[in-house]
Design goal:
- Component of the replication restart primosome.
- Helices cover 30% and strands 25% of the residues.
- The protein is an alpha/beta fold.
- Strand 31 and strand 32 form a beta hairpin.
- Helix 7 packs parallel to helix 8 and helix 17 packs antiparallel against helix 19.
Length: 733
């Protein structure tokens, strides 16, 4: 009689435990593998689980263990590499092991769908017999076209080319064409039409530094905007592409996908897979499966946003993280991982090179470079004949300002347009105005569900809270004093667009923000006049700050960027400096020089002068010294326990109780701040509070979090409180 065995199952639940189940009746141990999915009974429901272990020693009495309902997979959906990565997520971020492992899977696999791609009909040329089609010109045309398409096309390609199913069906009946169903992966095909560009001396040295080391080699590539970092990326991965390996390219936002894809597609004969939030669940699964089944027949480049770092890639040979400083790499819900950090961990575990690229590297990455954990390579010159834009400070105190922009700066825009160039006006506020107010009684339109003001939009007209997404119609009179003189306060992208359209009637004003780019391909269509070189004005938010190449933009004006100088967030100055230089980098990208002007009420700010008179690197070193003085990251390490409740003070009471319970476990070198109300205490109808846990040693903090983990799940008496643990938090507002 064979020894009984049990399956240790992880469920996609916020539970700090795993569960033992019996296998199906008459099944054997070799029918199961770690990383396979099964359906299991859980309470009154059936849940999808992942096999975490196969063992002979259950945690509970064998007679209490239920059998699984179904084995979903015949082979693991997660390789041993990804299983280990999921367990690392669990151990470092102290989140439930099941949630960590299921985070690695596409949504449809989490729901239990079979790991199969959708299939699409294809047509193959069997043989040519022109006599059979001599009286059928459309059938003959299809055969001729099919010959030019390497004898095989998809059903969609045939329809797009103007051939009807009737024509194709007749050719199938004549046995000239056959029908074949294949997985619908929809990879983009590179065509190698672009040759590698000549590198300048700095780029050559950068490429040499990246290529001369084998295995795990984390490189921080710090290059000013326009310095040709992308060309260095392309030439650095050429060896991996030649060997038909896989390359992962992470980008911070979906808006950067088209231009990134174009560069890689024009350079390499490779399949290019896209993974981002713009795809539906089935498309993401198709791409994930195609990457997971790579057979070295052709190189594969996977381009995606944050979660693409979890893609199954058996032949992964190189990783690039572009704009590594970007805050969108940090997940702010569920498992609060950092995509950049996971990429570094994955490269280390696979022993492959990784490039972290940025014009304005995060202080965390810069510190790692300064202490020699990363190789630090700098590109200080723009590629070709381009020269960096001059960064100027414009003091608007005592100046005439209308609709948020100074009159003198409007004259600069007019001069730029007359020269046939383009101007970009940056304001990081969507909508028409930040709020409505009443000049008679001082009423301000505030969100009832948040500690925030309602933003005024005019296209269409409504009030909108950008924190909780609450919307309401515009009031016709002040709800406080009934005055009809309510008016907009401040300026947003819509108001600026309206003002500039009135002032510069002969030129296009193009607004780029989340509201104007919601439609499919909306961004590309809006930017077409810019790429065509027409004199025009771009108005937009930080969507314009990253990665775009606007050769004719010769003037950049930045409004309201100085608000970050006085934020409660200790990272605010770092983020503000990064934003300023990213926006300024849109100017003067061709041979003629450009201007970047910061309109500010705080022209005397010392860090602003350091940024404009020297460079980001000098400012970053100054900020690092400041962080060191105050024991802030990267010189200390933090975890943040957040709690929220619909009842005032309940979240804070929960954290006070938690602090009482965990203090007896406190070791030397662990300190606490709080509990305190969050800077925005009320958000989406819930009152929020937070508790900081700090240590100068990462290992000591990790050990403490491991010890208190059970206590986090055992808090009783706070049924309406939601809590979360964020290790290495990047935002606490």
């Amino acid at each position: 009689m064979s020894t009984p065995f049990y399956l240790r199952i992880a469920l996609d639940k916020p539970l700090n435990q795993t569960f033992d189940y019996e296998p199906l009746a008459n099944s054997r141990m070799h029918d199961y593998q770690i990383g396979m999915r099964v359906n299991v009974p859980f309470g009154q429901r059936s849940e999808v689980g992942l096999i975490l272990d196969i063992h002979n020693q259950p945690d509970i009495a064998p007679h209490k263990i239920k059998p699984i309902k179904e084995r979903i997979d015949d082979s693991p959906v997660l390789s041993s590499e990804l299983m280990k990565l999921g367990l690392w997520l669990h151990e470092y971020y102290h989140q439930p092991v099941g949630e960590c492992l299921f985070t690695l899977l596409p949504v449809l696999l989490r729901k239990g769908q079979t790991a199969k791609a959708t299939q699409e009909k294809h047509y193959c040329l069997e043989h040519l017999d022109w006599q059979k089609v001599e009286r059928a010109p459309r059938q003959k045309a299809f055969l001729e076209w099919l010959q030019k398409q390497n004898h095989k096309v998809s059903h969609k390609q045939a329809l797009d080319a103007g051939f009807t199913p009737s024509i194709i069906g007749q050719l199938i009946d004549k046995q000239l064409v056959s029908e074949l169903w294949q997985d619908n992966f929809n990879a983009l095909c590179g065509d190698s039409v672009e040759q590698a560009l000549a590198l300048n001396k700095e780029q050559e040295q950068a490429l040499k530094g990246i290529s001369e080391k084998n295995g795990f080699n984390p490189v921080l590539l710090e290059g000013v905007t326009g310095s040709g970092k992308t060309e260095v990326y392309l030439q650095a991965i050429s060896s991996a592409v030649t060997q038909r390996k896989q390359v992962l390219v992470l980008i911070p936002e979906i808006g950067l996908t088209p231009q990134t894809v174009q560069r890689f597609q024009q350079r390499f004969n490779a399949d290019i897979l896209l993974l981002h939030s713009g795809l539906n669940d089935q498309q993401r699964l198709n791409a994930w499966l195609q990457a997971s089944r790579h057979k070295n027949e052709k190189a594969q480049i996977i381009i995606g946003t944050r979660s693409a770092v979890f893609t199954e890639m058996p032949n992964l040979d190189f990783i690039i993280v572009d704009e590594e400083h970007d805050a969108s790499y940090k997940q702010q819900e569920g498992i609060r991982y950092h995509g950049r950090d996971i990429a570094v961990i994955r490269a280390a575990k696979r022993n492959i090179p990784i490039i972290l690229g940025s014009a304005t590297p995060s202080l965390d990455s810069l510190h790692n470079a300064l202490v020699k954990k990363y190789q630090h390579i700098r590109l200080t010159q723009r590629a070709g004949d381009a020269s960096p834009a001059n960064l100027e400070i414009y003091d608007i105190r005592k100046q005439s300002v209308e609709h948020g922009i100074a009159d003198e700066l409007l004259q600069h825009i007019e001069e730029t347009l007359e020269q046939g160039d383009q101007a970009l006006v940056f304001i990081n506020r969507r909508g028409f105005a930040p709020t409505l107010y009443c000049p008679d009684c001082g009423w301000i339109s505030e969100c009832k569900r948040c500690d925030a003001r309602m933003t005024l939009h005019q296209k269409p007209a409504h009030l909108h809270c950008h924190h909780c997404d609450h919307k309401q119609t515009l009031p016709h009179q002040c709800p406080n004093c009934l005055s009809t003189r309510i008016q907009a306060m401040g300026a947003g992208t819509e108001r600026l667009e309206t003002h500039l359209e009135y002032r510069f009637r002969r030129h296009k004003v193009i607004r780029i923000d989340r509201d104007s780019t919601q439609g499919k391909d909306a961004m590309e269509q809006l930017l077409q006049p810019v790429h065509n070189g027409e004199p025009c004005i771009l108005v937009g938010t930080q969507m314009l700050a990253k990665g775009h190449h606007f050769p004719k933009v010769n003037l950049v004006i930045m409004l309201n960027v100085d608000s970050g100088f006085f934020s409660a967030d200790f990272r605010a100055m770092e983020k503000t400096a990064q934003l300023i230089l990213q926006v300024a980098g849109r100017a003067g990208r061709e041979s003629h020089g450009g201007r970047a002007i910061i309109q500010t009420e705080f022209a005397d700010h010392p860090l602003l002068h350091l940024l404009s008179e020297e460079n980001y690197h000098a400012l970053a070193l100054a900020l690092l010294e400041e962080r060191k003085l105050h024991s802030l990251p990267p010189y200390a390490h933090q975890a943040l326990v957040r709690a929220d409740s619909p009842n005032p003070k309940e979240a804070e009471q929960y954290l006070h109780r938690l602090l009482q319970n965990i203090k007896p476990l406190t070791e030397n070198g662990i300190s606490f701040i709080g509990p305190l109300p969050s800077p925005m205490e009320l958000r989406a109808g819930r009152f929020r509070s937070q508790l900081w846990i700090r240590s100068h040693q990462r290992s000591r903090l990790q050990n403490f979090l491991k010890n208190i983990e059970p206590l986090l799940y055992q808090q009783k008496g706070f049924n309406k409180v939601r809590w979360s643990l964020d290790v290495d938090p990047s935002d606490h507002i």
